[in-house]
Automatic annotation (TrEMBL), chain A:
GO terms for biological process: mRNA export from nucleus; positive regulation of DNA-templated transcription; protein import into nucleus. GO terms for molecular function: structural constituent of nuclear pore. InterPro entries: Nucleoporin_Nup85. Belongs to the nucleoporin Nup85 family. Component of the nuclear pore complex (NPC). The lineage of its organism: Eukaryota, Metazoa, Chordata, Craniata, Vertebrata. Its main location: nucleus. GO terms for cellular component: nuclear membrane; nuclear pore outer ring. It comes from Oncorhynchus mykiss (Rainbow trout). It holds the Pfam family Nucleopor_Nup85. Functions as a component of the nuclear pore complex (NPC). This is Nuclear pore complex protein Nup85.
Automatic annotation (TrEMBL), chain B:
It holds the Pfam family WD40. Keywords: Nucleus, Repeat, WD repeat. Its main location: nucleus. It comes from the Eukaryota. The keyword GTP-binding does not apply. It is found in: Nucleus. This is Nucleoporin 43.
Amino acid sequence: MEEVDVEPTTTPIPGFDSNQKHLGFVWGPGDILVYETIYKASGGSAGGCPFVHEVRKDEDIYSPILRKLFNESHHIFVGLQRIREDLPSKNKKPQFVSISKNYRSVIRACMEELQQVAVYHNDSLGNTLLSLELIWNLCEVLFIDAAPAGSLVLHLLDWVRLHKADVDEKAREVLASESPAEHQAYWDVVISYVLQGRMDEARQVLVKQAALQPAARVMFKLLDNLLMKMPIFNPGETQTLTEFDVKWRHWREEVDHCLQDQSFASNRHLEDICKILVGDEDVLLEYKELLSTWYHFLVTRLLFSHPTVKPTELHYYAQSSMHMFLDTRSVPEPLDSILLAAFEFDIHQVIKDCSIALNNWWFVGHLTDLLDHCKLLQSHNLHFGSNLREFLLLEYASGLFTHHSLWQLAVDYFDHCPEFGRVYLELQIERVPLDTERKALKVIRICEQRQMTEQVRSICKIMAKKALRNNRLGSALSWSIRAKDAAFATLISERFLQDYCAKGTFSDLDLIDNLGPAMLLSDRLTFLGKYREFHRLYGEKRFSDAAKLLLSLMTAKIAPHSFWMTLLTDALPLLEQKEVIFSADQTHELMFCLEELTSGKSVPTPDKPMQDEDIETTKIELLRLALARNLAMAIVKEGTVEI
Amino acid sequence: CANGINAKYVSKKISKTRWRPVSSSSLQQPDIFATGSWDNEDNSISIWSIGENGVSSMDDEFEGDPQLLCEYKHNGDVLDLQFLDQDRIVTASSTGAVTIFRHHHNSQTLSVSKLWERAHHYPCNNAPCTGVVCNSPEIVTVGEDGRIMLFRADQEGVLRTIEKADSSAIHAVTFLRTTEILTVNSIGQLKLWDFRQPGNEPSQILSLTGDRVPLHCVDRHPNQQHIVATGGQDGMLCIWDVRQGNMPISLMEAHTSEMWEVHFHPSNPGHLFSCSEDGSLLHWETSSNTDTPSFLQGGRNTSIISRSAIAPAGGNQSLINAWLTGDSSKGHLETTHMLPSQMLSVNSLDVLGQCLVCGTDGEAIYVNRHVPI
C-alpha cells in the first residue's frame, strides 16, 4: 500500500462524539452510510442514536449551474473521441487547441453564471472554477500548443492578461475621471500596463501626464520612444530567434544607458518604469501588489530579462520567482504547487495534485483525456490494470452514475474506456431505478445498442413482472416480446387460459385477437391465439373451418394435455349439429384423442370428491355417444353416392 | 452552432416542449413556449420567451437565448404537456395525475388551477399518465393503466372513463374529429374511439401485419382528417388512412431507434417533423406540385418500404420514392437533419409558423426561428 500524500480531511458527523461511541459505516457507490453503534469507546454498550447519516464527497454534482458544465463538456468529449485516428498528429494540433478552448469557454460560461447568482451561493465554487480555468489555460499553452522559445513568452503573457482583467476596469475608471493624470490610481494603471507588456496602452495613458508637465516634455518623449521601440517577437515574420535576441539586447542597452545617464532621475515613477524595462527584480518586487501573484511576477520577469526563454528552462525561473515573491513563512497553496508542476512539465504531478485538491473527477478526467489524445501521457499502466486516462474517466463516470439524472452522460464515458468500461456499464446500468416505461425503454435501448443481452432480459423481466402484478397482460406480453423471453410469454398465456377456464370468456380480446407473428414466441401463446381463432370461427358459423382447427390443435400437439378435455367439450356442439361437420377420419382422430386422454386417467383417488368423478364420467360418456353417432352419420354420408 | 440553431442548457432533462398557440388571424411568430422536465428529483414546468418579434436580425448567431419567465414544481415526470388555451397548460404526470396550470401574464407566475390526482391508477398503486390532448374545454388523457379519461376543464369530476380500453399501455392520443380520438399502444395498435357511442369498445383497430412494434406517437394531418402519421420503437414512420382499413399507406425508415414525436406542420402540411432517441430531428418535406404530398398519394398498393431516409450528419439528401407502382406522378421527398450530430435523445419537438423548438436528454433546448417552410 502506498503512502498517503496528504493528511486525509476529517468530516465531523453532527451529534456524534467519537470519544463516546464507535461509528459503523458501509460504502455506497458514491457515498458512505454512517451510523452510531451501541458500542461504547470504553467497552460495554448502551442505547444508540436512531439516525443514519449519508456522507457524500461530491456536492458539486448537484449544483444546477455545474450541471451545464457536465452536459456541455460531455458533448465536447464525445466529439473529441470521434476525431479520426489516421491523421498525423501535426495536423491535429489546431483541432486539439480548439477543443481545449471549447472546454475553457464552457468553464468560463459557468463562472459568469455563478457570478450572477453569487449573492446567494457560496463563492468558493466560483473561485474553484477560476483556478481550474487558470490551470487548464496554462496546460494548453505549455503542453497542447507547446509553444517554442520566443512565442512562449507571448503566450504566457496572454495567459496572465486573461486572468488579470481588473487592469482594464481601473483604466476605464481613471480615464473617465475629470483629470486622469491626477487620479490616485493613475500611476498604478500605467505601471500595470507596463508589467503586462501592453506598451501601446501604457503610452496612451502616459500622454495624459505628459500634457500636464510641459517642462518635462523631453523626458516623457524619451520614455515614450523607448516604450515604442521595444522589440516583440513575431513568429509569423521571417525573423529568427537569434535576430530578435540581438535586437532586443540592443534596445535593452539603450534603456540601460538612459538609466545610467539619470535621464529620469527627476520623476520617480518614470525611473521605476525604466528600471522595470531593464528587468530590475527589486523594483518589480516593490510592485508586488500590482502583480498580485508570483506567476505574474514570473512572466513579467521573463518578458524583460529572458524573452527568448526555452520551455525547458522555465522551471528554474518559476521556482526562483515563487521563492522571491512569496513570503517564506507562508504555506504554498495547492494552486501554486500545481502551477509549479506545470512549469516543470511534470504532467503526472499536475494531474495528481489536482486530483487531491478537487472533490470530483471532472477536471482531471477531461484534461487527462485531452492530453492523452495529444499523445503527451506516457502509457504506464497502473497497478490495477488500466492506464491513467481510463482510470480517471471510470471514476468520473461512476460518480455520474450515482446522480439520478446525469447517469445518461456516464454511458458515453464508459463506451470510451476500452479496458473496463463495458464491465462497469453492465454493473451500473442494472441499478438505474425504473419508475416509468419510458425510462425503462431508454435503458433497454442503451443495452441493446451495446449487445448487453443479459441486461436487456433482466430489465424486460422486471417490467413484465410489474405489469403482470398490475394485471396488465398486454404490457407484460409486449415486454416479453422485446426480450424474446419465451418462458414469460408462456406464463402470460397460462394466465389467460386460467382466466378463461374460471370465467368462461376471454379477457383482453384486443390483445389475443391481434397477436400477429408474436404468437410464435411460445407454444402456449400460439395455442392461445389459435384457440381464440377457433372461437371466432365458431361465432362466424364457419363450422368446418372451426372443426379442422380444433382437431389440428390436438393432433399437432399444440394444445397442452390439460386442456384437451376442454377442447373435446368444445367439440360437442359441433358433433351435435344436424349436418355432419366432422368427417369419418376426423371423428376417428377425435376418438383416438379421447382414448389417449382417458387411458391416462388412473384409479380414482380417494381425495377426489364423488361429484367431480361423476361429472367427468358423464362428460366422457356424452362425448363417446356423440362421437359414435357422428361417426355413423359420417360413414353414411361419405358412403352415399348421388345418383 | 450548426444550421443556425443554438443550444440553451437548462440543467434538467426536457421531456416535452410546446409553443403557446398564436391566434390564427395574426401573422405573428410564436414567442412563448413551455417545457416539462423528467428524471429529476424535482421536476418542473417552465415558461420561456424568445424575445420580441419584429426585431429580427439578419445575423442568426446573435438572436437571444430563450429567457426563463417562470417555473413551477411538478410532481413526477412530465410525460405530456399541452396548451389548453393562451393561459392554461395541462400536464400528464408519471404519478398518474393530470394538472391544469395557469400562467399569469402580469406577474409572470404559474399556479395550479386544477388537479386530478389519481386520474390513472392500478388497483394498488399509481399508473403513469402518458398522454393528454385538449380541445378546449375538453381534455382527454391516456395512461399505462389502459384507461381513457375524459375531463372538462371547468368541472371537478370525470366526465367519462373508458375502462379496460387497452390491455397494454397506451402511449399517445390525438383528436381525429371533435368526438373521435385515436390512441396508440405498446403492442403496435391504433385504436379509434367514438365518444358518441357508449361502451368500452373501440370503433376500429388498425395494426401492421408484420411485427407489432410498440407505437409511441401519433399525429393527424391538419387538413385531411383521415390521414394519420405514427412512429414507434423501430424508428419507422408510418402514414395511415383510417378509412382504408388495416394497412398503412406507406412505411419509411426514419430513425435508428424509438421515434418519440411526430408532427405535421399545422399550416404547411407538406412538411413533417420527427424526433428520436437516436438524437436526430428530421424535417420531411415534399416538393411535388400537387397539394397532397407524395407519401399520401399511395393507391391500393400499400406498405412499400422506401430506401433509407437517414442522411449523413449535417447533410441534405434528396430521395425519390418509388411508392407508386402504377402512378406516373413522382413525388419528391427530402429529409434534412436539423440538429448537430452526436446528441443524446431528442424527446420532444413542436413547430408553429417558422419556429421550431425541441428538448433533449442532454439537458438542452434548441430553438430555430427560420425553419424553411
